[in-house]
Specification:
The structure holds two protein chains of two kinds.
Chain A lengths: L5 H32 L3 H5 L13 H8 L1 H32 L7 H13 L4 H10 L17 H12 L3 H9 L4 H12 L1 H17 L2 H6 L8 H14 L8 H9 L5 H37 L1
Chain B lengths: L1 H5 L3 H16 L1 H24 L12 H4 L6 H8 L2 H20 L1 H12 L3 H12 L6 H12 L5 H8 L13 H29 L3 H9 L4 H26 L7 H6 L6 H4 L2 H11 L3 H28 L6
Classes of the chains: A mainly alpha, B mainly alpha.
Chain lengths: ~300, ~325
């Protein structure tokens, strides 16, 4: 290895210090949130809880897991993520496969129709009126149907399918396989990496999305966990009360003086983050590839 | 074939039939794309038609067909409204701040990561810094609220320990801190993830160039500016074009979640949040649509101009 000049040594030291600082600053909010969620609320309120729980307790999580509304929100989020991801990936990949066919009549116009939507859209209000007009207000399907087709993902799928060897398709055709058969028996099984990547991104955006339910859903039983969490954090600021919990939890809460809204909202946040943290280490390789696939298209 | 070409007249008709026939024959692949295109039509094109609301006095009970036309009334109302200056100023200042700090930050990070030779350390920094991208803004705002709270938030504790402040500062209800908080949380969330693309571009630089520079005695620091940066410039330009097209998108989720205190409205209201507040919360549909359209038109113009400039330098988007 080439020996570094003095100036470069200084630069390397600065880089290492900066990167270590960045890693710390990124990690600390998680850690502090986790610590607060495991620390008794009344103790947290005295201050100074930073790196380690001082008064360890599971009470905060106890409340969260007893609250039927939060559990229901969790269930809605899981349902939405699973159904939304599978259906969107399926519809979009079938769409993309059709678009790879040279003989498809109208292919050029179909493509233009898709690309226009990437640069121009109706905006918030006309979309809101449309959803309202379609009767999707206060319906679970408002989470699923508008996101069934993703033009962006379609283009990525299409690029991937175009890169597959065409000989496979032809031999299947000779064996009497139709286009749908080829798609399900040959194309899909070969598309593992791209399906994994796009599913990951779709699932994460479903899990994290909180805004649409806040305008389209009034029925509390249909609110996903992120939207409920927002309400809890809101009430946390406005008035230090936990009116967002159901009555059973409020009764439990009144007996447990040590739980505060801060410790409770931290525990809820940790529960809402947990699925992401859990899958994160396993998917890291995929998403790095996925970003690159996406950016190559740009 | 020869027979038909002798008869002149039926030719166009035959062609038309054959198109239909060909279409019918490929019903299986048309069936793959038409349902999806119908969804694209419904969820993207019908709202585009709905933009006409901006030129109406839209009445929710009458619907678009029967609502009276109003011309440019709503646009004029927006330009003359007292909020116009505030909203435009906030939009431009916030997005410029985000652009000036948030755009170079991941490039800088990628350049730094590229110099790190300890693979474990490099991977650790990458793993940690990519993570916030996958969190929802609700969670990120929750962290920010917790860390910045007067009630023993870490930031206040730290500043007090360092004797920089006497009393805890209520950061999230003081207008002067808001832009800083917004930009910081944005960079915190996306710096790592946005650096992936640049890191890949940096990895694609021909190593021979560095060897040659080493022999010529160029320092590592010098090599960053004379080799690495120029090599990744095409990628940088493409992302810059996209960023310029989004210049009027100053933020939405982050602002809605962090600026809950109405005191902050004078510094936090941007076009998108204004459209949301006026349109959804106050139900002034036509007015809000007009404001949204105003933004969309300017954005498309900005994107086109940015692309024109980039095309001259040979790095255009299309």
């Amino acid at each position: 290895m080439v020996r570094l000049a003095f100036g470069d040594k200084v630069m390397m030291v600065i880089i290492y210090i900066f990167l270590a600082f960045l890693a710390f600053v990124t990690f600390y909010p998680f850690w502090n949130g986790l610590v607060i969620s495991f620390n008794s609320g009344s103790d947290t309120a005295m201050g100074g809880v930073t790196f380690w729980p001082r008064d360890f307790t599971l009470e905060n999580y106890g409340i969260v897991f007893q609250d039927n509304r939060l559990l229901n929100g969790f269930k809605i989020s899981v349902l939405r993520t699973v159904i939304g991801t599978i259906s969107s990936i399926l519809v979009t990949s079938i769409f993309a496969y059709g678009m790879t066919k040279r003989e498809l009549i109208g292919r050029k116009y179909y493509m233009i129709m898709c690309i226009v939507t990437m640069y121009f859209g109706g905006g918030l209000i006309p979309t809101f009126m449309l959803v309202r007009g379609l009767g999707l207000m206060d319906s679970f399907w408002v989470f699923i149907i508008p996101g069934l087709v993703s033009v962006w993902n379609m283009i990525i799928f299409r690029t991937f399918f175009n890169g597959l060897p065409s000989g496979l398709e032809e031999s299947a055709k000779i064996d009497g396989c139709g286009n749908w058969g080829i798609f399900f028996k040959i194309i899909l099984p070969l598309s593992g990496p791209v399906i994994a990547t796009l599913s990951l991104f779709t699932a994460v955006s479903h899990w994290n999305e909180w805004f649409l339910p806040s305008i389209y859903i009034n029925n509390e039983n249909l609110l996903p966990i992120q939207t409920m969490l927002r309400q809890i954090l809101n009430s946390n600021i406005m008035s230090e009360q936990m009116s967002n919990l159901d009555s059973a939890s409020q009764a439990v809460l009144s007996r447990m003086q040590s739980v505060t809204s801060k410790s409770l909202s931290m525990a809820t946040m940790m529960v809402a983050t947990l699925p992401i943290i859990m899958v994160y280490p396993f998917v890291q390789k995929h998403f790095v590839k996925g970003v690159l696939v996406g950016s190559l298209k740009e | 074939m020869a027979q038909i070409s002798v008869e002149q007249k039926p030719v166009p008709k035959r062609k038309k039939e054959s198109l239909l026939l060909r279409f019918a024959k490929q019903w299986d692949i048309q069936l793959m794309v038409l349902p999806a295109l119908a969804l694209v039509f419904v969820f993207s094109y019908i709202p585009m038609y709905g933009i006409l609301m901006a030129f109406q006095d839209f009445n929710i009970f009458k619907g678009m067909g029967d609502s009276p036309w109003a011309g440019f009334k709503h646009f004029e109302m927006f330009f003359e409204s007292p909020e116009f200056m505030t909203v435009m100023r906030n939009t431009i200042v916030i997005s410029l701040l985000k652009f000036l700090i948030g755009f170079p930050a991941p490039i800088l990070l990628a350049l730094m990561l590229n110099e790190v030779r300890h693979m474990f350390f490099k991977r650790l920094v990458q793993t940690v810094s990519y993570l916030p991208h996958f969190l929802s803004w609700v969670i990120v705002s929750g962290f920010a609220i917790s860390l910045l709270s007067t009630d023993n938030g870490t930031v206040n504790i730290l500043l007090q320990k360092l004797n920089l402040i006497e009393e805890p500062i209520n950061f999230l209800s003081l207008p002067e801190y808001f832009w800083g908080i917004l930009v910081t949380t944005g960079v915190w969330k996306e710096i790592g993830f946005s650096s992936i693309v640049y890191l890949a571009a940096v990895a694609g630089v021909d190593p021979h160039m560095y060897e040659a520079a080493d022999m010529d005695g160029a320092s590592k620091f010098r090599q960053i500016f004379t080799i690495t940066l120029p090599s990744i410039m095409p990628v940088v330009v493409i992302f810059m074009i996209l960023a310029i097209g989004n210049l009027l998108t100053a933020g939405f989720e982050d602002i809605l979640l962090l600026a809950k205190n109405p005191v902050l409205r004078e510094v936090s209201d941007v076009i998108d949040t204004y459209v949301y507040r006026i349109g959804i919360e106050n139900s002034r549909f036509s007015y809000a649509t007009a404001v949204g359209l105003f933004k969309a038109v300017i954005s498309v113009m900005l994107l086109t101009i940015a692309n024109l400039i980039a095309r001259k330098s040979g790095n255009s988007l299309w």
